[in-house]
Amino acid sequence: MTPRPTLEEVAARAGVSRATVSRVVNGGSGVRQALIDKVRTAVDELGYVPNQVARSLVTRRTGAVAVIIAEPEFRVFSDPFFERQVRGISRELSAHDLQLVLLWVEGESDHERIARYLSGGHVDGALAFSLHGDDQLAHLTARSRVPYVLGGRPPASAPPGAPYVDCDNRGGARAAVSHLVSAGRSMIAHIAGPADQTSAVDRAAGYRDVLVDADPKLVHPGDFTEESGARAMAELLDRCPGLDAVFAANDLMARGALRTLLDRGLRVPEDVAVVGFDDIGDVAGGAVPALTTVRQDIEGMGRLMVRLLVRRIDHPELAGADSVITPTLLVERQSS
Which residue in 325, 301, 29, 306 sits closest to 147, CA to CA? Predict the structure, then answer.
């Protein structure tokens, strides 16, 4: 096996000192551009790969970021939202030469383990999303003293000023319900998401912004799964048989609602119009009929989370960096 090129060999090829090569490889400052170019050329020619352990001792960086999902595994693997968000995160981390370390949080019993890991110097920062109302995960992450960014508007349990990336959930919901009102629908139901998640709370608030006097019987909770959408739609039809539209807080619940409506012999959209939220292609575009929905850039939000985190890692003095709220867009299809 051919031995790996050494730092000394790179220095000899570039005609510079070993210290200069070390500064260039480890991202240090104070090196003229002409020397940086010589070192990079030598690195490419020799195929030099830095020793990550030695590099970590110099830079005090691990080159890894923890991605914490506060949901059980079955939820993550059954909801394509998570796949898209992690895809965006992974691609942006790769662009910054950072490794993703995925951590599951099934319940409070996992909190101490996560806190120990974050405090142990294993990662440079953390991303956490799908937090619930009483979840102490954000506080544990903050106390670990690693830079962090949350996915979604933080729950009340999060530290004040916690940085986050989210979409305009409330505005998107308003657009969805306004679309149904403009289409002449007069009894519009809402299948809400879990009351302990801010995205669901904000989407329900957007529904009420448009339908201030809506009958409480027209609102039924779900848990963001397809089965809960099917059950909620059945309950709503039993309670309010005259309803002519439904806004579901995500596409999976909207697809479940479609299934119940068709099982009951109701036509969509002629008898009941349906609008979802997310615009996940396989779910919304593959539904029958194709689902009108509110598009959020799920993968793009994952990328933004990483960019905001990298900024906080590179510039600790920007601890109060602004959060980001991305726009949403109503996408009209055949279900409304």
Answer: 306
